[in-house]
Each structure stands twice: as C-alpha cells, then as structure tokens.
Amino acid sequence: MFTDRTELSLPDLGIELPVRATDALSGWSGGTSYGDATAPLDRVVAHWFNLPHWHGSAHLVARAADGTPRLVPAGRSVYEADGWKITLDVRPDHKAVFSGVRQADVYVMTHVMEIRRLNGTIFTAAEVTPVLGALHVVLSFALGRWVAPALPVGQNDQRETV
Q1: What is the tens place of the pLDDT at every residue in 43-85?
Q2: Which long-range contacts link 144-150 to residues 24+ away (Cβ below 8 Å)?
Q3: How distant, in Å, are the alpha carbons of 68, 121, 124 from that of 43?
Q4: How far apart are CA 27 and CA 16, in angstroms?
Q5: What span, in angstroms and rounded, lies between the C-alpha atoms of 57 and 93?
Q6: What are the angstrom distances between the C-alpha of 108 and each of 92, 98, 99, 111, 133?
Q7: Which residues fall within 8 angstroms of residue 62, CB to CB, at 6 or more apart?
Q8: Full-prediction pTM beyond 0.90?
Q9: CA angle, 25 as apex, 19 and 30 as ends, to 5°?
Q10: Spans of the chain, pLDDT less than 50
Q11: CA–CA separation, 126 vs 131, rounded Å?
Q12: Is 136 helix (H, G, I), strand (E, B) or coil?
C-alpha cells in the first residue's frame, strides 16, 4: 500500500495537520481543530460535498403581484432530533453543478448545514461533535458511500467564529 505521510501546515492559524496519501490521487486526514473547545456556541455551520438533491421539507412564503401569498419550495430541509435542530440547504444551481460531478471525479459543495439547540440554549464543540458523527454515519449509510460534514465552524450568538 502506498503510504506517504506528510504535514499540512497552516501557520496563520497555528495548525499542523497530519495527512496520509493512500495512492497518487487520494489520501486521508484525521482532522484537526483550533480555538477554545469549551467556548459557548450558538450554532455550527458545516458544508456537504456531492450530496444529491432531495426535496426539502421547508418552504418560503412569496407574494404574487396582487399580494396573494404562495408557498415556494426552498430546497431546505429541517430536522429535529434529540434536542437539536438541523437545517440543510441545497445550493440553488445544484442541478447544473451536480451533473458535472457525475462526469468527472470532482468535489462540489452542494449543501450548507446549520446545527442549533432546539431550545435555543448554548452548547460546546464537545456536545455537538456526536451530532456531526451521527450525521456522517447516517447519511453515508443512506447513500451507500462515505460522506461527511466538512469544515464545521462554531459561532457564538454574535455570529463570531469561536
């Protein structure tokens, strides 16, 4: 097996990330984090790559020219589980970008996810980590291939990255 080990260094952030190449075209990283893991978070925003489009459960209310409200599918799915609210938004040009994913071996950010406490209380990175792990396993199983939330960022109630 091809195993070339190296370090990915992000000196401005103070991050040293171990990376292992499994062959000439792919590899693996065990992940890393920075910041205060005990800082109070209001929400976590993460991204998903190469997920198919599924119809969202949430809709927007739009008004016609005469002021009549109508529901418009927003490509948003909202889930509530074990005290957490998970909102998943699909990018509006999903059809165009996803067709290219199938033609070439590329990764495209297709969805953005927000995780909050259902009751609006604050939480820590340690408390939300199992939620991210569960989403990784559940969606991987549902799709029959490995997928995972990428680049999760915790924000406080001022929308500052912590």
Answers
A1: 999 999 888 887 666 666 677 788 887 766 667 888 899 999 9
A2: 147/48, 147/49, 147/50, 147/51, 149/46, 149/47, 149/48, 149/113, 150/46, 150/47, 150/48, 150/49, 150/109
A3: 34, 10, 9
A4: 16
A5: 18
A6: 13, 8, 11, 9, 21
A7: 69, 70, 71, 72
A8: no
A9: 20
A10: 1-2, 25
A11: 10
A12: helix
**Are the C-beta atoms of 116 and 42 separated by less than 8 Å?**
yes
Spatial distance between the Cα atoms of 98 and 148, rounded to a whole number of angstroms: 17
Q: With beta carbons less than 8 A apart as the criterion, state whether 7 and 17 touch.
A: yes
Report the distance separating Cα 79 and Cα 86, nearest Å: 5
Tokens of 82: 């074990």
Q: Which backbone phi and psi does 46 adopt, to 5 degrees?
A: -140, 165
Q: Answer yes or no: are the C-beta atoms of 122 and 43 closer than 8 Å.
A: no
CA distance 115 to 83: 11
DSSP designation for 67: S
DSSP string, 11-58: TTTTEEEEEEESSSS-EEE-----S-TTS-BSEEEEEEESPPP---SE
**Token couple for 103:** 């033609």
One-letter amino acid for residue 146 of the chain: W
